[in-house]
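Re: duplicated header lines in exported structure tokens

Our pipeline writes sequence and tokens for each protein into one text file. With two proteins the header for the second block appears twice in some exports. Here is an export where it did not happen, for reference. First protein block:
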Amino acid sequence: MNGPIPSAGAASGGTARPSQEAGPSPEVMVWDPVVRIFHWTVVAGCLLNLFVVEDSEALHEIIGYMVAAALVVRVIWGFIGTHYARFAEFVPGPRRLTWYLSALAKGREPRMLGHNPAGAAMMLALMALLAATCVSGWMMGLDTFWGEEWLEETHEWLANSIMVLALLHAGAALIESRRHRENLVLSMITGRKRRA
């Protein structure tokens, strides 16, 4: 059954109090727990591995494997998860991305409940870099690649690239929050956004 449940007073022909006459919630759940846990696991893992546990190789590896596990779960969730989590819902084609970037450049981009096309492209790029960083880190622990300087440099370059894109992503989220009068950082904590 959809819609608000009538109060006992309203059902019997009486007058409902204003609080009981309220329509649907002004907010809607967009980011489910899997999406939010993935997001903040990656944020924490990258910050820890880049700036906090540099001298502890064992802890660095553990955090790396946790991020890799979160990434695997997120990829699976992208096919079987809730509406806004699914790749089919937000991955843009070239035409849609071009249209959105053109509208963005003119300051006329529409507000979207889920990922906008630019945000989706950024997310896919970050996920690809995360995967490559995790794989290169795992390879560094194999006897075959032990001490290979090119692999260590690649791993470091990938990790630094994640930070650059993450800073751009965070900056874009703050700008979009201001433009659309919506706290996108808070929505990634609560999962809720203002209804369209």
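Second protein block, exported in the same file:
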Amino acid sequence: MSASATNPPPPPELSHLRLERPAAGVALLVLDQPDKRNAMSEEMTASWVAAIDHLAADPTLRVLVVTGEGRAFTSGGDLSWLASEPDASVDELRARMLPFYRAWLSVRRLEVPTIAAVNGPAIGAGLCLALACDIRYAARGARMGVPFTSLGIHPGMAGTYLLPEVVGPAASRDLFLTGRLVDADEALALGLVSRVLEPEDFLAGVLHTATQVAATAPIASRLTKVALQRPHASLEAALEWEALAQPVTLATADLQEGIAAAQQKRSPLFTGR
């Protein structure tokens, strides 16, 4: 087996962003500008794109965790950047915003499961980043919201698509139109996050879950993510997809390994074949 099949490629140089490998198959991206509450600076945005491109080309990747350094997940778009061109035309501003949105939403093109570890405030575009991930866990005390209108701005970064997809239209109207923030426990009740963990054990708990995800069968995991990320138009459409995707996994060596492991009462060792 070649080295490229067993080892991740060398990471790119990153600014205001860290890429760590806490366990086999697990990547951890840390938004790293705590003095600005991990605001999405131009440097961080460029690094994010480089990191996602790097991870997308990594055959060893099984799961990605995204979190923030310090006390915040991210406060969202850099306000000084947003207000830096008061005389710009609508077309000029649109030409700035679309690449920004698409840069951060590029996480959705990863084929592996992605987990947002919301360690602290996730505000505006910051919450949209968490919504772009497949799973969201929050530290108790973390606050989340989309207070765009409170700043005099329309929601962005596909928030009007992502938030209703997760919490439904009624809760989305409440959060968008009031601009209010919710704490982790209310976010759990709304379905905005899946679990709330205590701050002192937060990242360790999320990474433990990530290692469990990384240990699942890669082909089955990726196909399941595709099925869940693109909701089926009907029951029949779901059946047609599953009648194609499930046989793909039935033909893998990983299925035989999974069955053997269950019969032998041991943990499976999946290879993605």
